[in-house]
Amino acid sequence: MPRIKTAGFILACLIYATPFCSAQAEATPSRVISAAGGLTEVIYALSEQNRLVAVDTSSFYPEPAKLLPNIGYMRALSPEGVLSMRPDLLLTTSDVGPKPVLELIQQAGVPIHQVNSDKTIDGVIKRITTIGTLLDSQERSSQLAAKITKEYRSFIEYRDERLSKLSRQPRAVFLLAHEGHMVLSAGQGTAADAMIKLAGAKNVSGPYHGYKPLSREALTVISPDVIITTTQSIEHMSSKAALLKSIGFTDETQPTVIVMDAGFLMNFGPRTVKAASSLFDQIIYLLHLDNNPLSLK
């Protein structure tokens, strides 16, 4: 699509009220854009994916979502990218932006529904319930919520029973490869921090919020038992060895590393309990805590 001057584009939408820019949303949306990977997962889990006309860059699960038109990164949306899909609903979270773009999209007549972005199982359940209501799929959303709640309770019982045998909580850090081969560590309030805690470990990166660079010296001081990163970060750095080398590790000083898909680990959608269980089991296995639960000093 040719680049259009935003102000003129929006003005034309408001003046001519073409179907392209219609302000009228159907009672049940039929042309939905999902701008959050976890929300896209929920829509597919409810079997409502036929309503999707586009997704954002974080929506790469399930596989068919990758084939849909992509509107870009949820924190850097463009009005042209959204409006070109003629949506009758933009479904996203409170993390979406920038705010001026959202205002332009609303002025063009597209309803925007922002659900909570809480990185908790309660937040997941609330999002499922909300989406079920929006898409007139209440029965399926109730069933999915009940299923996840049951999985969560079972996992917490399993996790806590095994943690009770350890001398202390496993210590973990999460590393993310960023632009320019910069490696950042996840602090408090991040999805990675929430997942580390859900998996029964302690995030020892520091008291800061968000992401910031972490040096080899800092890693030595905080002394994590395990480093967690994503498949996408490894691909960005070309290899696990390259990622570790960038923060000062050598072939002789390789730490214990867990690598998981970013969406699976941090989308906080229908797969979150499975992700937490997988992370927990890998921590226990790789640190040999099944055979030696008191080895953590």
> What structural class is derived from the secondary structure elements?
alpha/beta
Largest sheet: 6 strands, mixed
Oligomer: single chain
The gross shape turns out to be globular
List the uncertain runs.
1-25
Lay out the secondary structure.
Blueprint: H1 6-16, E1 32-35, H2 37-45, E2 52-55, H3 79-83, E3 89-93, H4 99-107, E4 112-115, H5 121-134, H6 138-163, E5 171-178, E6 182-186, H7 191-198, E7 202-203, E8 211-213, H8 216-222, E9 226-230, H9 231-237, H10 240-246, E10 257-260, H11 262-266, H12 272-286
Parallel strand pairs: 1-2, 1-3, 3-4, 5-7, 5-9, 9-10
Antiparallel strand pairs: 5-6, 6-8
Helix pairs in contact: 5-6, 6-12
Care to describe what's here?
The protein is α/β, with parallel strands linked by helices and 297 residues long. The chain has helices at 6-16, 37-45, 79-83, 99-107, 121-134, 138-163, 191-198, 216-222, 231-237, 240-246, 262-266, 272-286; strands at residues 32-35, 52-55, 89-93, 112-115, 171-178, 182-186, 202-203, 211-213, 226-230, 257-260. Strands 5, 6, 7, 8, 9 and 10 form a six-stranded mixed sheet that branches. Strands 2-1-3-4 form a four-stranded parallel sheet, with helices on both faces. Helix 2 links the parallel strand 1 (32-35) and strand 2 (52-55). The longest helix has 26 residues, at 138-163. The chain is globular and about 60 Å long. The model is unreliable at 1-25 (pLDDT under 50).
